[in-house]
Design goal:
The chain contains eleven helices and five strands. It is an alpha/beta fold. It folds into two domains: 60 residues, no CATH class; 169 residues, Rossmann fold (3-Layer(aba) Sandwich), CATH 3.40.50.300. The protein has a five-stranded parallel β-sheet with strand order 2-3-4-1-5. Strand 3, helix 9 and strand 4 form a beta-alpha-beta unit. Helix 2 packs antiparallel against helix 3. The model has no long low-confidence stretch (mean pLDDT 89).
C-alpha cells in the first residue's frame, strides 16, 4: 500500500492524529530504523494524544471560562498570603476526587478569579467536566429558567459537572428563594461533585448577604465542615502589574 493510499484511509476513518503524524513518523522510522511495532506505537500514540487534546478543548469550551490562566502563570513575587503548598493542594485535585467544596476568600484584586479559573482549566485537562459563571450570571439564569418553566432542567444542568465554579459570591444579596436555589444546588452536588466559590466574605459573614437566616445556616453547614478554605490577603495583583509595567517603561 502506498503512503498516499494509507493517508487517504486515515482521513476516511477519521484518524486525524495519525494522519498529522504520519510523515514525521515515516521519516523518524527510516532514520532510526525502528521496528514495525515501534512505528505503529508512534502512530497510535499520536492518535491518542490528538483525541485527548480535542476532548480537552471541548471541555474547556463547555466550561465558559472568561480567562485562560495557568498555574504556571501565578506570580509569587507579589506580596500575597497564599503559599506554594496551597497552590499544590489545589493543583493536585484530591479535593475534587473527594467531592469537597473550595472557598477562595480575599479582597478584590488578590487573584481569586484567576486561581479559580486556572483550577478549572487544569481540571479540564485532567478529564473533568467544569462549568464557570459569576453568581450574578447564575442568578440571572435562574430567574430566566423560573420564568420559562425550565428551572428543574437548569438545576439538573448545574448538578452534572464534576466542578462548578461560582465567582463573586456576596456581590449582591440573595432573596430567600435565591438562597433556597443555592442550597438545593449544593444538596444536588453534595455527593461526588465539587463547587468552588470565590468571595470577599468569610463564611461566617454570608448571613449578611442571605436574607433567610435558616437557609443561610443550612448553606454554611454544607460548606463549613467539608470545604478546602484558602484565605488570600495582600496587595492587589492589578497594582503589582501596574508597577511592573511602569518600571519597565521607565527602564526603556
Amino acid at each position: 500500500m502506498s503512503t498516499a493510499v494509507a493517508k487517504n484511509l486515515m482521513v476516511d476513518m477519521k484518524l486525524l492524529g495519525m494522519f498529522a503524524a504520519f510523515d514525521h513518523a515515516i521519516t523518524a522510522a527510516t532514520r532510526d530504523q525502528t521496528s514495525y511495532t515501534e512505528f505503529l506505537d508512534m502512530l497510535l500514540q499520536a492518535e491518542s494524544d490528538y483525541r485527548q487534546d480535542r476532548k480537552t478543548g471541548y471541555r474547556i469550551k463547555a466550561a465558559k471560562f472568561t480567562l485562560r490562566p495557568a498555574f504556571e502563570d501565578i506570580d509569587f513575587t507579589a506580596s500575597r498570603s497564599i503559599s506554594k503548598a496551597q497552590i499544590k493542594e489545589l493543583y493536585g485535585l484530591q479535593w475534587l476526587s473527594e467531592g469537597r467544596p473550595v472557598l477562595l476568600i480575599g479582597q478584590t484584586g488578590v487573584g481569586k478569579t484567576f486561581l479559580a479559573q486556572a483550577t478549572g482549566l487544569h481540571a479540564c485537562a485532567c478529564g473533568k467536566s467544569v462549568l464557570y459563571m459569576t453568581v450574578t450570571t447564575w442568578l440571572e439564569n435562574v430567574a430566566l429558567a423560573r420564568s420559562s418553566g425550565t428551572y428543574l432542567r437548569y438545576r439538573d444542568k448545574l448538578a452534572k459537572p464534576d466542578l462548578l465554579i461560582l465567582d463573586d459570591m456576596g456581590m449582591r444579596k440573595l432573596a430567600s428563594i435565591e438562597a433556597q436555589d443555592l442550597c438545593e444546588i449544593l444538596e444536588e452536588r453534595s455527593i461526588g461533585k465539587s463547587t468552588v466559590f470565590t468571595t470577599q466574605l468569610p463564611l461566617d459573614h454570608w448571613s449578611e448577604v442571605i436574607a433567610d437566616p435558616v437557609i443561610a445556616d443550612a448553606i454554611r453547614d454544607r460548606l463549613e465542615h467539608a470545604a478546602l478554605t484558602i484565605h488570600i490577603t495582600g496587595e492587589s495583583y492589578r497594582g503589582v502589574k501596574a508597577r511592573k509595567l511602569a518600571s519597565k517603561q521607565n527602564d526603556e
